[in-house]
Amino acid sequence: MPNLLDHLGRPVVAVTGIGLVTSLGKGKEANWEALTAGRSGIHAITRFPVDHLATRISGMVDFLPSSELGATALTYELAETAAGEAITESGLPLEDFDGPLFLAAPPVELDWSARFFLNTRGEGEKGTERLLDAANATGSDELFATTQFGTVADRLSDRFGATGLPITLSTACASGATAIQLGVEAIRRGEAKRALAIGADGSATAEALIRFSLLSALSTNNDVPEKASKPFSKDRDGFVLAEGGAALVLESLESALERGATVIGILRGCGEKADDFHRTRSKPDGSPAIAAVRAALQDAGLAPQQISYINAHGTSTPENDKMEHLSLSTVFGEHLRGIPISSNKSMIGHTLSAAGAIEAAVSLLTMRHGVIPPTINYDNPDPAIDLDVVPNKSREAEVKTVLSNSFGFGGQNTCLVMAREPS
Predict the structure, then answer these.
(1) Which residues pair with 20 in a beta bridge?
(2) CA distance to 66, 110, 230, 400, per residue, from 143 (Å)
């Protein structure tokens, strides 16, 4: 009988369901086949005109019905798709989840299509008053609902029968991992037997592309889209904006065993650290990321040498990859040379709010299948970043524990430690 309490006397948290959708496809099976084959989902943008844009590529999810309906509708469908798959795998009722819901989602604002719609209705006073009058004239609150930050989580809660007030959060690129952390903490505190943690982001809009371009954050390697994202390579030039969603059913190990559920993995540790150094830049000494990694290991009760594999944040930006290497080499020291490290973003791009959840899902699949997805496009190694990045081809390996890193804009950092089996 495995221990039902961890080293700090808290309920052990198991994963009993995983759902996944990215530009590589819908569902775990399609994504896993593509990831282990080293196939990229990054492609030329066709959703809107890009003639005058510096970046014309993305990892958009174009195969779902809502892909043309705006960021709110697509974020909901990505979340619903992933959550449905996760709950189904867990064996729990699809419409009576009976646990809290934590959603990592992008900041919501009125889609451009709605703005244009409102701006062309009626006559009279220009500006805000005209938009409000036009919105009121529609006789529906649907347009208003789409502008509310919590609307996606509210609908998901109704769809799956989650309990309590659904939580929507945004901690930049760490959001997906933060949603998982909140679910883990709710179970550890004894507030719930299970929780549904989701990260979803369908906000690869023209406006988002322009904003990130103005920050000089995006790759401009447009000619061969699948080669644009190249984490840890010397010639990396920015991340590739992408969309996707992932969901985990988290459950106390005791509850999972009682109902005969299959335990996919264990969430052993969570660590977070925020700093206010800069709205986009990383602190030069890497101290917040270092602290987050150390906190996750301490929470898990593991030493650095007990980590089998690291799923890197690995965005393919010059600064982030350098900072991540600094933080890992500081924490792991000489042990880092023996730990494989790879970045899923080389194939799916940066899914922003969803990234931490997607990479946690992939980390669990890595342990389950004993195969490490590669870092593709690694053709020009950076001598300043001495890592085993599992270059270009997947690798069979026994993976018992994983550290998954998520480092967000604004100094928001969350790290997760997962294990294949309970101790």
Answers:
(1) 246
(2) 16, 8, 39, 47
Candidate CATH numbers 3.40.50.2300, 3.40.50.970, 3.40.830.10, 3.40.47.10; the one for domain 14-108+148-419: 3.40.47.10
- What are the start-end ranges of the E strands in 193-283? 194-201, 244-252, 265-274
- State residue 229's pLDDT score: 98
Q: Which of 270, 325, 350, 415 is catalytic?
A: 350
Catalytic option among 173, 270, 325, 415:
173
| Strand-strand pairing, 194-201 and 167-169 | unpaired
Every domain of the chain with CATH number 3.40.47.10 lies at 14-108+148-419
Q: Which residue has the tokens 């190990």?
A: 253
Give yes or no: 173 in active site: yes
- Number of Cβ within 10 Å of residue 24's Cβ equals 24
- Give residue 201's pLDDT: 97
Concerning whether 313 is annotated as a catalytic residue, the answer is yes
Q: Are 90 and 249 in contact (CB under 8 A)?
A: yes
In angstroms, the Cα distances linking 187 to 71, 111, 295, 307 are 31, 36, 19, 24
Residue whose structure tokens are 């989650």:
162
d(CA 249, CA 89): 9
| Catalytic entry in 270, 313, 325, 415 | 313
DSSP string, 37-66: HT----EE--SS--TT-S--EEB---SSGG
Closest by Cα among 209, 168, 154 to 144: 154
Q: What is the pLDDT of residues 255-271, one digit of tens each?
A: 999 999 999 999 999 99
